[in-house]
Amino acid sequence: MAIDLSGTGSSGPQGASTGSTQKEQENVSNTSLISAKRVVPVLAIAAGFAAFFIFDLGQYLTLDALRDNREWLQQQVSANFVVAALTFIAIYAAAVAFSFPGATLMSLAGGLLFGAVFGTGIVVLSATIGATILFLVAKTALGDGLKKRAGPWVAKLQDGFKENELSYMLVLRLVPLFPFFVVNLVPALLGVSTRNFILATFFGIMPGTAVYVTVGAGLGAIFDSGNEPSLTGILSPELIAGLIGLAALSLVPVIYKKLQQKPSAKV
Description:
mainly alpha
């Protein structure tokens, strides 16, 4: 019986070394793949944001551009409502995902093209899709790194936020205190669940969106009259007070839970 003394068998030292090397290569390959999955979406969003300014796409997101192209846009909606709606949703969602300025103009356009009711639904859906895309990119690509750099205070804030994240998210969405893209990114840092993020975004932006879309539904009459439309005063003090009231209602479950946690007084 011949005995292999060359060390080239699978059970020999060289075979073990080869197997170990293969595992190391696989680990490196997997690590590279994970890194690519994290980096590519961030680079894509950064490139899209830069392209907005490089190609001066902001010129298409103005009231003048909307007025000049109104007839053509309305013709497209009349010719094929479904295709026009899907195209609008894709453009709006991309604008939110890339954090382009001009969401207000897009909301007005939604009202002008699709009416107050359909326009509100389409804009809310579009904004929710775009916000969720940006949220998921931030959560998967930036979340862990930002937590490590931010320090232990983020963990404490995250624990407090997680107890009532849906209520807190609704407050952030209802009251327009912070830019929309900021409220898309911060929850990713705080570990908010995707489900609660989507629910809070979809329902939380409805009141404010309905106002802008309703104003947009009346833009046609303003354009026809020759008057100059203005965006000032849309968020009136009365409307802001109403949004704050809704936000306060969103905090009721939080307040109730805090009261329930208080120890009963000893007699």
